[in-house]
Write a structure and sequence with these properties.
325 residues; 18% strand; binds adenosine-5'-triphosphate
Length: 325
């Protein structure tokens, strides 16, 4: 248990660090995880700005065991108990070319989130290498890694602070005009404009409560302000009402324009549009290709398509439409 106290005491000191890192890593605990094991080398090189290529070279990964890192979260302890350090990725090899959109799909536990976390070096690979812009992420400066990559997860976190402050974590020197532009791009400007305090509205449980879809759009506004060349996106599985869903989709297509994207896909439209779909199963890529090829191949993807994607995007039943004004 004493192992837990160190990181918890350190929490107060790393607040500022955590806040700015959140824009990349989005969840406090993932950032705390990052600190104990992940260090910048003295001779680290910056990733060239605007780099869009991501490469996985025969990546093997198992989560560190209790003896290898100081555990940052109770979540970690539970996860370690659960898995007993089993290999999670077993020879994952792929390239995302600059500007491409690659969709990761696969059954629960296949290793999709783990793969996405290795790009921003939340953990180091056990074997093989992950390269961003041609630089092994273990040799890259942490700042350049953070500047290059933006992450939007399903549970994007907003702090109990004003909207402007929440946005400034993405870009501290953002002007009000920059913020409004980002909010417009993220399809949430009208809403913020209608609030009595506008950008100075305090958000959170004791302030203005955004809905799930609105929170996601604020997270997308942060991404637009930050301008990363690579976006890691975990598409929401949570049900949003259809209007909010459509707004999030419009915001996302704006955010992904011209960028490299690695998407943990839950939507049919995403897999249809993807330049490449990687089908993960038990830590290996078992199929890869475009939607129509993979459906025709009749393998695991075809099955996932039938059971997950086709169902997820089926039209709402007629009575739901009738209920709308
Ligand atoms: P889902 O679709 O359910 O989110 P996924 O394909 O994203 O699944 P991962 O979350 O990458 O799968 O998990 C892959 C494996 O790694 C699972 O067996 C999971 O239990 C394990 N795992 C995930 N996080 C940790 C952790 N922090 N420590 C130890 N094992 C973990």
């Amino acid at each position: 248990l004493t192992r837990l106290y160190g990181p918890l005491t350190a929490l107060s000191n790393v607040r500022v660090d955590v806040m700015s890192a959140l824009v990349s890593f989005d969840r406090v605990f993932e950032v705390l995880d990052l600190r104990p094991g992940i260090e910048e080398k003295p001779d680290a090189t910056p990733i060239p700005s605007g780099s869009g290529r991501v490469e996985f070279r025969d990546v093997h990964f198992r989560y560190p065991s209790a003896g290898e890192v100081s555990l940052a979260t109770l979540e970690d302890v539970a996860a370690l108990d659960r898995t007993r350090n089993a290999p999670v990725l077993r020879g994952v090899d792929f390239t995302v070319e600059p500007g491409q959109m690659v969709a990761l799909v696969g059954p629960s536990g296949a290793g999709k989130s783990t793969t996405s976390m290795l790009v921003s070096r939340v953990y180091d690979v056990t074997d093989g290498a992950v390269l961003v812009g041609g630089v092994d992420v273990r040799d890259a400066t942490l700042d350049s890694l953070r500047d290059t990559i933006g992450v939007v997860t399903q549970d994007s976190h907003l702090f109990h602070e004003t909207i402007a402050e929440n946005l400034r974590y993405a870009r501290p020197d953002a002007t009000e005009a920059d913020m409004w532009e980002a909010l417009r791009g993220a399809q949430v400007a009208d809403l913020v404009e209608a609030l009595p305090d506008g950008l100075d509205t305090v958000v959170g449980d004791r302030g203005y409560r955004f809905s799930g879809g609105e929170k996601q759009r604020i997270a997308i506004a942060r991404l637009l302000l930050k301008h990363p060349s690579i976006v890691i996106l975990d598409e929401a599985t949570a049900h949003l009402d259809s209007e909010s869903e459509a707004a999030v989709q419009r915001a996302l297509s704006k955010a992904l324009e011209g960028r490299t994207a690695l998407v943990i896909a839950h939507r049919l439209s995403t897999v249809r549009d993807a330049d490449q779909i990687l089908v993960l199963d038990e830590g290996r890529i078992v199929e890869r290709g475009r939607h129509t090829e993979l459906v025709a191949a009749g393998g695991l993807y075809a099955e996932l398509y039938r059971t997950q994607f086709a169902v997820a995007d089926s039209p709402a039943p007629p009575y739901a439409q009738d209920a709308e004004p």
